[in-house]
Amino acid sequence: MVVNLRKVVLISLILVFVFVVVAILSISLGTADIGLIKILRGIFGWVSDPVRGWTDTDRVIIFQVRLPRIILAGIVGATLSVSGVVFQAIFRNPLADPYILGISSGSAVGAILAIISGAGLSFLSIPAASFCGALLTIMLVLGIAGTGYRFQTNTLLLAGVIVGSFFSAIIMFLVSITQDERLHSIIFWLMGDLSLSKYNEIIIVTPFVIIGCLIIYLHAHPLNLIVTGEETALQLGVEVERVKRLLLITASLITGVVVSVSGVIGFVGLIVPHMMRMVFGSDHRLLLPVSGLFGLSFLVVADTIARIIIAPVELPVGVITAIFGAPFFIYLLRRKGG
Fold this sequence. Notes:
With 338 residues, the chain is mainly α. The chain has one domain (22-44, 53-337): ABC transporter involved in vitamin B12 uptake, BtuC (Orthogonal Bundle), CATH 1.10.3470.10. The chain is 77% helix and 0% strand. The protein contains 14 helices and no strands. It has helices at residues 5-28, 36-48, 56-90, 103-117, 125-145, 153-176, 182-191, 199-218, 220-228, 230-235, 240-262, 268-280, 284-308, 317-337. The chain is globular and about 65 Å long. The two termini are 25 Å apart.
């Protein structure tokens, strides 16, 4: 597929429209029945007269409960999808995902320690501890895999597996010694939970995500050349090792940022990039934005299903993504093996 700016903009605008439609549908669904017609009537009524359209209860449900959750789900979905594209490209493996270097395990250890210690009294305590765990993981993996200037992806991958396994053992230990109501919070966080989404978290993570995604997209063309072949990329003037290191660190950091506020939501960074690659091709100038924008809608849909499937009880969104993701992973595995 030939990629130009007009095509990127057109497809991106279509996917933005899809997200708006998905978001409106998601706002209308839930335990408290507002309804799509009432949502649309309220939107147009609010435009013409802000006093009319919704009741005070409707406004609380829409603006304080559902809207921040939808926005945060979109940010997390987009970030995991973009990071998945980077990891799959650099490792040259469609089965790679943003957690392949053990970031999820490191984040989880930080969050669990904050929950057990009672630091969750502050809304930033758990995200801050989780991000510190992710940052520590990145430093450990890069330190273990460090082999001078040249960047060995196989060594990095093995280091990620080792560090991730170590932190997973710590997680099992911490879960086993936790017996009270904190265990429920830990389990929900480990499966991905967006039920406590707040605007404060959105304001904090959004600048990091925007900057990180912008850095990644500015290296879309060098990434294309690296995927084609590192020797070819070097001959064409790409600083391969610098680009790989920069993109992996950037993708890992923004993954750590969103995991710190959402918990561990699996399979998004695996499913979305591969679906978009099958539809739009492998040119990262298009693949990166469409993966991010489709990831917006994908996770909002998954989180909406998690909210309503057994209402009034809510499931962790990670359960839904796993239900979708596990069969898709098997499909990819068999397809790759074939």
